[in-house]
Structures are given as structure tokens and as C-alpha cells.
Amino acid sequence: MKIARVESLDREGRGVAHVEGKAVFIDGALPGETVRYAPYRSKPSYEQAQLLELIQSSAARVAPRCPHYQICGGCSMQHLGGEAQVAAKQRVLEDALWHIGRVRAEAMLPPVHGLAWRYRQRARLSVRYVPKKGGALVGFRERRSTYVADMDSCEVLPDAVSSLIPELCTLVGALSVRDRLPQIEVAVGEAATALVLRVLQPLTSADESEVRAFAERSGMQVWLQPGGPESAAPFWPPGGPPLYYSLPEFGVRLEFLPADFTQVNNAVNRILVRRAMALLDPLPGERIGDFFCGLGNFTLPIARMGATVTGYEGSERLVARARKNALANGLEGPSEFQVANLFDAAACAGLARFDKALIDPPREGAAELIKSFSAGGPRRIVYVSCDAATLARDAGMLVHAQGYALRAAGVANMFPHTSHVESIALFERA
To answer: What domains, with CATH codes, occur in the chain?
Structure first.
């Protein structure tokens, strides 16, 4: 056991100290605290450690709300107050922009806040049948482990889903395929919730009866997924209402399937879309490109504001869904959607040119797309990011190689109580 004074938080939400020339990353420790810790992984230049005792606590420390917090790996920052969590994420963004991209924003945007609890409208729950623990376990994985946490509720899932965890455990334990059901995907819409059972072998007729009874009792839609995401299909009840979420400020409703990508936190997504539109400022007569457009989350609000917009996405399935959403919202005129591999340099070089652009890439960022921007590239870019490091890398390219200025940047607390940093940045031709 060793003692350390914690100096800061790292990108994973761990306390960082320096002891005997080594960086020490301490799970659950906060800046300003003096702690007793025990290493569980040691390397020549750093150690990873678990917190054993608080000798001096931070004023920002709070009691975790979830009774499973010390075991479950779904959250990592419940011991830190909400405002301090957001401040830490803003610091991660600023540090990444400077240390990776060598850029600083001219202005830092106020953080986007939303629901702190019961906010997760998408989740992937792991499943494991463990007779020694009394049957099936359904939940997030334990910290630093492949084991499934033994939990009967979750403070970040909607109440209706959280309260079903014990019944899901019972359901899985009653199935003949309980050893061949590794996960349950949760997708919450405004009028329905779908639970997608990943089944690696077909259900028996008895299994089907159990699942139908569960669906009837719970009011949930149950889907079965025997293969990849595209194999997911509704099982019970037949003809249920579609999954959808809405953006009321823009008069848009977007339907989706359980396997489609949608944001985890709909309340924050609404605010994020509003901010993106304010920064982008789409105007009638402008041509705008929406890159990595998905279902049209930003594309359709851009079209609603009067600009002509083209959404690009690598998935034919998502492009088909986006076109359907445009038609349903009466926006098929000002919007169009195309399939494009935005990670391929040649494909990016052949894209049309636009007055403005919105970029919302996955964690890999948008390096090839950004390299394709020349002097004739968009004069304004709004970049929505789910990874501070790749945003910083791409920001460095935009500023140092493409002649843009980073006008503003800020975080959106899309995943409260986790170290995940969602952010938004505005670039303009210098």
C-alpha cells in the first residue's frame, strides 16, 4: 500500500498522481485528494491502481447514487459532482486540442447539460448464465473484468427498463438457449421500447412461449438477432408501433430500427442539434454537406431551415432510412442522401463542394475527408465529435494545413457519470 496526492483526472476519469518518478492512475480518486492505494498493474513508467482509503477527500466528492457502482463498469464518475464532471470533460477537450492538435479555440462554448439520471435510451447489456450465482446475470460488465455485474437495477437506464432487469434474468434462465444468448440490446423510442435478444441458436417452441409471455407482461417489443445487426427482426408483439424520436424545435420526427445508430441521450441530442444549427446558420440558397449523416439527425433540421443539403453515409441501410425519414417529414426536396466511404481518400476527393459542412464522424474521426478540403472547401464547418483525441487531430489538420480558424469549441454531457467526452467545434476560413 502506498500514499499519494492526486493532481488531476485523466481521460478515463482516473485520478493521476506522481510517485517516485512514475505516473500513477488511481481508479476512483479525485484531484486534491490524499489517498492510500494499491497497484494492480505496474510498468516501468506508470502504474494503474485501486483506491484503498481516502485520507483527505475532495469537496467535489459525492456519494454514488447507484448501489452497484463499486462493481459495475457502466459508470466511472458517480463519485464526482455533476458540475465537476462537466468541468473535467471541458478540461480534457482543451488539453487534447492543445497537446494533440496544437490549437486553442478562440472561445469556449457553455457546456450542454441534460438529464443526469435515467437518460440512457440505448444500451448493450451483457448476459451470462452462472448457476453458482443463482442463474442468469443481465447488466453491464464489472470494472476491469469480462464478468457481468450482479445487478437488479440501473440508475442511468429509464425506469421501465431498469425495473425489468430481475425479470430479464428470470427469462434468460428459463430458456433452453440461455448459454447461447450473450447480450440484450436496449433501444428506447418515444412511443415504444425494443429489447433485442442476440440468440446464437434458434429458440424452441417452449422458448418462444416464454418470450411472448414476457413481452405481454412487460409491454416491451422483443426482437431476435441471430446474426449481424441487419438480422434483427421483430418477434413479439406483431405490428407494434415504430421506434422514433423527435426534434420538436425543427418539426422533425426520425424513425429508426433497434440496430441503427442513434444518440444515447435524446434530451442532450435536442440541445446539441439546436447548437449545431445556431453555429452552422443554414440559409436559403446555401448548399451544405452533412458528412456521416446517419438517419438525418442534422440533415433534416438543416433542410427545415431552408438550405439545400446532401447527407453522406457509408451504410446503404442508413441512407435508405434517412431517405424514408426525409419523405415522411416532407423534406425530400431540399435534402438528398448518398452512400459514400468517407474513410477513403479517392471517394472523398470526388465529393461535391459545399458552402458549409457539418461533420459528425465515429471515433475514428474524419482525416481523409478533411484532407480532401482544398481552397474551395466549405467556408464554415461544424464538427460534432465523440472522441476528443480525434477531434484534436482533425482540428490540427484544419487549422495548420487547410487554413481554417478554430472559432469555438465546447462539450456536451451526453454520457453523465462516465468519462466519455462529446464535443462540438466551429471552424471558419481564416
So the answer is: 2-61 (2.40.50.140), 87-115+266-429 (3.40.50.150), 122-243 (2.40.50.1070)
